[in-house]
Amino acid sequence: MVLHSELREVLNSMGEDVVGCLNRVAVVVGNTRAVVDIIRAVEGKVHTIQAEGLLSIRVVEGQVHIIQVVGLLTIRAVEDQVHITQVVGLLSINHVTIKDVVVHAPEVECHSHTMADLGGVVDVVFLQVHQEQFPSCTKPHMSNTKPRWFHQPHRELAHPLSLRRSGQVQQQFQQLATRDQSSTSQAIQIAPPSSKSVRFPLRPGKGTYGDRCIVKANHFFAELPDKDLHQYDVSITPEVTSRGVNRAVMFELVTLYRYSHLGGRLPAYDGRKSLYTAGPLPFASRTFEITLQDEEDSLGGGQGTQRRERLFRVVIKFAARADLHHLAMFLAGRQADAPQEALQVLDIVLRELPTTRYSPVGRSFYSPNLGRRQQLGEGLESWRDMSSTAFIEPLPVIDFVAQLLNRDISVRPLSDSDRVKIKKALRGVKVEVTHRGNMRRKYRISGLTSQATRELSFPVDDRGTVKTVVQYFLETYGFSIQHTTLPCLQVGNQQRPNYLPMEVCKIVEGQRYSKRLNEKQITALLKVTCQRPQERELDILRTVSHNAYHEDQYAQEFGIKIDERLASVEARVLPPPRLKYHDSGREKDVLPRVGQWNMMNKKMVNGGRVNNWACINFSRNVQDSAARGFCHELAIMCQISGMDFALEPVLPPLTARPEHVGGRNTVLVDALTRRIPLVSDRPTIIFGADVTHPHPGEDSSPSIAAVVASQDWPEVTKYAGLVSAQAHRQELIQDLFKVWQDPHRGTVTGGMIKELLISFKRATGQKPQRIIFYRDGVSEGQFYQVLLYELDAIRKACASLEPNYQPPVTFVVVQKRHHTRLFANNHNDQRTVDRSGNILPGTVVDSKICHPTEFDFYLCSHAGIQGTSRPAHYHVLWDENKFTADELQTLTNNLCYTYARCTRSVSIVPPAYYAHLAAFRARFYMEPETSDSGSMASGAATSRGLPPGVRSARVAGNVAVRPLPALKENVKRVMFYC
């Protein structure tokens, strides 16, 4: 038999006891990712449903249900019944793992085929059975048309399952059992779709276009352990929310019982509920009692000196074995999904030691010793990892307050606004006391006292004896408080107040500042983060060397080895596209060099017209003559560049409004000559979409969604844009497609996609026959959710315009918020770096550091100006246009040269860039009415995409989102966000 190697191994391991199973016929459906579904027929109970569409199969209690419907579908088995949900454009099949089913038939002939038309996603192995073995089976339908989905079998089969495709795939199965189909049909119910069933497109091969080179990435190869890993559930009571406390409890447990009760194992702990060991522990379940001294007292408890002890009960119970075999299969490209459990184990093990050395923030680690600290002002400083973030300086609280207020706080009393600012900055900050020698007890600030220190008093015993704070500190600690006019820090609560004078407190090191930075702090942070590539590479190598993974006891325990050299990766440098300017200019086209060019001797390919304009001089230092000279030179330069620009400024009527000129600076030569693959051959619309969220601390401000779409096929340089407000931190774009009830028109459809498709039709006279959708701002954990929701919205928007209108869609996520950096293999080779020392624009990587099987790539499309360039990461989530790697990479790189704001290539594809700008601009339409707390004032503007008269949209929790002001039609048509 010719079977997948995985299937063969499992069958061989089952032994001779399965050889006699002659009454079973198997249809084995697998794929190149080593996900194998085994579908079995027992006692001839096979049920079929005939229809057009794609084939899905599910087994329920030994009965095979072969289901083929119009469209794509989700299939589930619930309480022994088959449940079907039809979903336009998406498919879900529940998998039966190979080890759950015993299948073997020695008299069966096997033929292996590849479903090439599905992009290589599915391999199908048909086990064909001789008819005399199953006399109850009738002969299936024979087709004279050769199957187009499969390679030809070596010879004609006794019972072929024929597939035929003409426009749509058509397939017919004859009933293989005597049971009537109606019984199966009655079992079919409706079930919700599953996002996990969606399979992202496989990589259609690696790209070959461009000049090959080698680059270095800040990725480090790891040697995986060949050990038996075990997972244990951890329960700690009383339950605490702090991972730090949980880790302290587990550290104490391991210190006390590692060799006596844990068999010498050094476990890795995630700080929550899971513990991992390299081998089994000597027990299946065990309870420990751990006593921990509490270093932090958030409730106070008076001014006593005794540190509180807390008793914890820890239960460790065996949960499962952690199998790293699937991770190796995934990395080898033989498994579709990344085994999250195995990745989690490796992450926990490698994070264990850095967690004790550094300050963990999310997925990053920060330390004041990794690079120099940089003061940001107002008591903040920056620490670096691969990224930088702001930390509160470990200053005496008195000094912190002085920096915060930018004055000497002993000169005059604090105002009410000063108190509010101090309270806002210090609330939740952890401090340690300095007046008790080596006993540095820690507290968390809950607020400020309303009274000055000299006015505060508290009871010191049960008899009602009262002392002032000043008197208590002098008598108990011999400490004389100097700043008696300042308020005290409140570290207790209203029931148990606990006062600490500012001058006896120091801020604990390593506390991240999570509030919004001001402009000066942002400027200072940008300065320190701006590192040349060679400097950053050396810093990375020093950090890896400092981590000393070869000495890491946790890595050694689990057998993980880390290569301390930067990964060398094959790359290619894509050539820049030739850009077309107006034929009346001295230079009609230009070939950019190192990602940039200029407008000298060139005229805009489609210059705009400016009839009325004015210049207002707000500066006292600029003479009117200088301003007039500037106006004259501006008009002359605009005319030289190809614009119809009035020479003399004319003050327009008061009713006029500032407008964008429109027009186009330049277009791609390949666009004019119709040489862009999968764009120039038929009308194609390119979308860009993004959602911007409020700053940290703004708990009720809405998120802003923006969608732009090209309007000038085949040039694809002008983009119309729409914006919409939606629920706070909602990443899914809610306004892509909308349906509402109108009292006069009935059911009405609308939304951003529909409106932009109509706009494209009006501008070009043709409806789009292809859709390319670049989606910005989506994290990897949201891929499935965003694709399911937004692709469905695109489909519905198209169908609402015209029945059966479903142009093929390519959905690409653009990511900039990642830590991957690429460096030249030789920083001294001027042929491989730009002026800033970065890799050349057009450098693309689609191997090693990319997904093992899915269609993604890193593209550095811009020339660096300062600092280290960050390549954009593009991940294809849906591709009905069947792009090759070269086609999509070249299209994306070439589009980066069409950005309207400058004569440089940009770092991300312009549609996504424009969507980001539009969303950023739209936030200013709301910000003036946003309070300091982030809550929105009520507004009466009508939202675009909502029916007339609707003042706000309701979201989950019945919270109203104030809509954005409506954009006028003439504004939508121009790039108002640029």
UniProtKB/TrEMBL annotation:
Any one Gene Ontology molecular-function term assigned to this protein's record: RNA binding
Question: Compositional bias (Polar residues) spans?
Answer: 177-197
Q: Name one GO biological process term.
A: regulatory ncRNA-mediated gene silencing
Please state every residue range assigned to the domain named PAZ. 396-509
Question: Segment Disordered: which positions?
Answer: 177-202
Q: Which PROSITE patterns match?
A: PAZ, PIWI
All copies of the Piwi domain together span 661-927
Question: Which terms are listed as keywords in the entry?
Answer: RNA-mediated gene silencing
Q: Does the keyword Amino-acid biosynthesis apply?
A: no
Extract the InterPro entries matched here.
ArgoL2 (IPR032472), Argonaut_Gly-rich (IPR024357), Argonaute_Mid_dom (IPR032473), Argonaute_N (IPR032474), PAZ_dom (IPR003100), PAZ_dom_sf (IPR036085), Piwi (IPR003165), Piwi_ago-like (IPR045246)
Q: Provide an example Pfam family for this protein.
A: ArgoMid
Highest taxon, organism lineage = Eukaryota
SMART domains cross-referenced by the UniProt entry: PAZ (SM00949), Piwi (SM00950)
Q: Which family does it belong to?
A: Belongs to the argonaute family. Ago subfamily.
The name of this protein is Uncharacterized protein
Species annotation: Oryza glumipatula
